[in-house]
Write a structure and sequence with these properties.
Belongs to the class-II aminoacyl-tRNA synthetase family. Type 1 subfamily. The protein is an alpha+beta fold. Helix content is 28%, strand content 23%. A hairpin with a 4-residue loop joins strand 1 and strand 2. It is elongated and about 90 Å long. Bound molecules: aspartic acid (ASP). Aspartic acid (ASP) binds next to strand 16 and strand 17.
């Protein structure tokens, strides 16, 4: 007999079925024992009545919560007064005829039948594989998967290709600190983990793919915040022969399609477009929450685009001079602003083609039209105080690539985990990630960072200095 899911049992009244899963709860009423059996489909009640074979009853008596069991039995209607309308299988129960214990379980170090907010982060993440058993996180990760599936569906329908880019790459200034990986083969040299696939996706445009996406991991060595972790996943997009409006329209359509697939309610479509200047004047920030109190209570999403950001801002002291506000690979908003950039004048007035999408006060996407002219890219780094040899060393590959027929292009990255936070009413990014880091930057379950052996250090040409 084939195993079926508990969620498939309610249509099988009178049939013998085989189900398997975890014993969520066990109620022993002396002569009669009940299990709530949990699997990926949900829950179903299993009943061990006095008519069941004696050895089955004996086994059922020994089973404890979270044991993994397989049950064969007959699906029957529950008596009217014992129906449970709060679960999908509440009208039926499975009268057990056979019970096999597949795996025993020690008492769990944390409860898994609550929403989990009451448990300390360290315990939850140390036992994340148990923490994830709770209904709330099963639901969050299911909805996450459906959101990504819907984005893929939409992007494939628009002629996009899904292409992966390297994880071991080169350290480049993209606004954050890099995670670095020492090279064994080249003493004293390091790879960097990507802060985003920015340069590779632009090179894919030079290569002629025109429409690229991937669900990309982005790694940034920053102190974690509620809506930011060392690792996050983004839906990374790049397109050729497009305007700013084309990319915004595509991202907006994808977002609406995917959000509606997961049952989100969006207050305003199309999304309003606000300039940076207006946003600062009206809301005092470039991330703002447009929802009314009523909409907040109803879990409604309000999204808006922000455009026309300044390209550069004064660097934070002790650093001097200018730095980019969003993305050094962006193009200025128009030819006049490009001329200013090339001439290094009116720096504070140069507007970038950047667009950000905000949702309920969170920044959920960002992108821009890129410069595909080597001179303009060089000019960005000159404004930031880089000398030509340094620009050549760090970005020579991009400057060269742009000399072999680079199409005009632009793109976007969507930090969809934040959109899911907004939709699911979660306050922390880690509630929509399977194995997030702790607030102290330690990994779930495996407790990294950890030490390396002397042998490994030697191979990597590294010596660890004692903190003074
Ligand atoms: N690479 C940018 C980021 O990850 C987004 C983009 O411009 O596509 O922030």
């Amino acid at each position: 007999m084939e195993r079926i899911l508990t969620s498939q049992t309610q249509t099988k009244i009178g049939d013998r079925v085989r189900v398997a899963g975890w014993v969520a709860t066990r109620r022993d009423h002396g002569k009669i024992v009940f299990f709530d059996l949990r699997d990926r489909g949900g829950l179903a009640q299993v009943v061990f009545s006095p008519e069941a074979p004696a050895e089955v009853l004996a086994k059922a008596g020994a089973v404890r919560p979270e044991w993994v069991v397989e049950i064969e039995g007959k699906v029957q209607k529950r008596p009217e007064n014992l129906r449970n309308p709060s679960i999908a299988t509440g009208d039926i129960e499975i009268a057990a005829e056979k019970l096999t214990v597949l795996s025993e379980a020690k008492p769990l170090p944390l409860p898994v039948d609550t929403d989990g907010y009451e448990i300390g982060e360290d315990t939850r993440l140390k036992y994340r594989y148990l923490d994830l058993r709770r209904e709330r996180l099963q639901r969050n990760l299911t909805i996450r998967s459906r959101y990504v599936q819907a984005c893929r569906e939409y992007l494939f329908s628009q002629g996009f290709l899904e292409i992966e880019t390297p994880l071991l790459t080169k350290s480049t200034p993209e606004g954050s600190r890099d995670f670095v990986v020492p090279s064994r083969v080249y003493p004293g040299k390091f790879y960097a983990l990507p802060q985003s696939p920015q340069q590779y996706k632009q090179l894919l445009m030079v290569a002629g793919f025109e429409r690229y996406f991937q669900t990309a991991r982005a790694l940034r060595d920053e102190d974690p915040r509620a809506d930011r972790g060392a690792e996050h996943t983004q839906i990374d997009i790049e397109m050729s022969f497009v305007t700013r409006e084309d990319v915004m329209k595509l991202v907006e359509e994808m977002t609406i399609f995917a959000l509606e697939k997961i049952g989100a309610r969006i207050a305003e479509k199309p999304f309003p477009v606000v300039t940076y200047q207006e946003a600062m004047k009206k809301y005092g920030a470039d991330k703002f929450d447009l929802r009314s109190e009523k909409e907040k209570k109803e879990g409604i999403l309000r999204l808006a685009w922000v455009v026309d950001f300044p390209f550069f801002e004064k660097a934070t002291p002790p650093a001097k001079g200018w730095t980019f506000t969003h993305n050094p690979f962006s193009a200025p908003i128009n030819d006049e602003h490009e001329q200013w950039l090339l001439k290094g004048k009116n720096i504070e007035q140069i507007i970038t083609s950047q667009y950000d999408l905000v949702c309920n006060g969170l920044e959920v996407s960002g992108g821009s039209i890129r410069t595909h002219k080597p001179e303009a890219l060089k000019a960005v780094f000159r404004v930031m105080g880089y000398k030509d040899p340094e620009i050549e060393d760090k970005f020579g590959h991009m400057l060269e690539a742009f000399q072999y027929g680079a199409p005009p292009h632009g793109g976007c990255a969507q930090g969809f985990e934040r959109l899911l936070m907004a939709h699911l009413g979660e306050e922390y990014l880690r509630e929509v990630q399977a194995f997030p880091q702790t607030g102290q930057g330690r990994t779930s379950v495996m407790d990294a960072p950890s030490e390396l052996s002397e042998e490994q250090l030697r191979e990597l040409h590294l010596r660890v200095q004692k903190e003074k």
